[in-house]
Design goal:
Layout lengths: L6 E5 L11 H13 L3 E6 L23 H9 L4 E2 L11 E3 L12 H4 L7 H12 L4 E4 L2 H9 L5 E4 L3 H9 L3 E4 L6 E3 L4 E4 L8 H17 L1
Parallel strand pairs: 1-2, 1-4, 2-3, 4-5, 5-9, 6-7
Antiparallel strand pairs: 8-9
Helix pairs in contact: 1-7
Length: about 220
């Protein structure tokens, strides 16, 4: 049982599976936190998206640009806190939903593979969370971001849906653990709980179970 109410910050990367945050996962994260009585804040870097994808046709726009912060507000249904303005020392828990924005805008793994770097303000956020030993819950492509950010510390993360992705994450030092969508992998030393979510199942009920398990586990660490 949780001993007291706290606030969890949800890190967004825009709105949409192919170029931002996966909307189903974001909604399930907020629902899980609400059921636990945890206050929710949404945050995002104030940067341009790596690119914009037409989700109807799958085409990448060659002329359109969008803001990660502005697009994230579509999910939050209102203003999102810019990482540049967020008081990092007050972050009690961090949740990172999936969607390809996590590996396109929050880090650039989708474009640079093993040479990927974490976006500067996102790296500062994760460093601050680690410094105060606050828990992290991540899912889907958010797990790749965690693997890149904390791989040098041998973070244990739920992966296993793609062999090349697993090998790249392992090259950074991360411990890759195969996990079903309904389950979660817990790294008690680094206080990280992760689940593959939509990467391992298209059944939203199963994905919901895994997200709920990961968030509960993280908040109880």
């Amino acid at each position: 049982m949780l001993k007291h109410k706290r606030k969890a910050w949800v890190l967004l990367s825009g709105a949409g599976l192919h170029d931002g945050t996966e909307l189903h996962e974001a909604a399930l994260v907020e629902l899980s936190l609400a059921r636990l009585g945890v206050a929710v804040g949404f945050c995002a870097p104030d940067i341009a998206q790596a690119h914009v994808v037409d989700h109807q046709r799958g085409d990448v726009s060659t002329i359109e640009t969008r803001s990660v912060l502005v697009e994230s507000a579509r999910i939050a249904r209102g203003p999102v806190e810019s990482l540049a303005k967020l008081d990092l020392a007050t972050v009690e828990a961090l949740v990172i939903p999936g969607g390809f924005g996590a590996v396109k805008s929050l880090c650039d793994y989708a474009f640079r593979a093993r040479g990927a770097k974490v976006e500067r303000s996102v790296a500062a956020l994760i460093d601050a969370v680690r410094a105060r030993r606050a828990p992290i819950a991540s899912m889907c492509m958010g797990n790749v971001l965690v693997a890149r950010a904390l791989g040098a510390q041998r973070v244990k993360v739920a992966l296993g849906w793609d062999a090349m992705l697993d090998a790249d994450c392992a090259s950074w030092g991360a411990t890759v653990v195969r996990c079903e969508a309904k389950a979660a992998v817990i790294d008690r030393d680094l206080r990280v709980a992760s689940t593959p979510a939509s990467s391992a199942s298209s059944d939203i009920a199963v994905v919901s179970d895994g997200i709920d398990r990961a968030i509960r586990a993280a908040l109880e660490l």
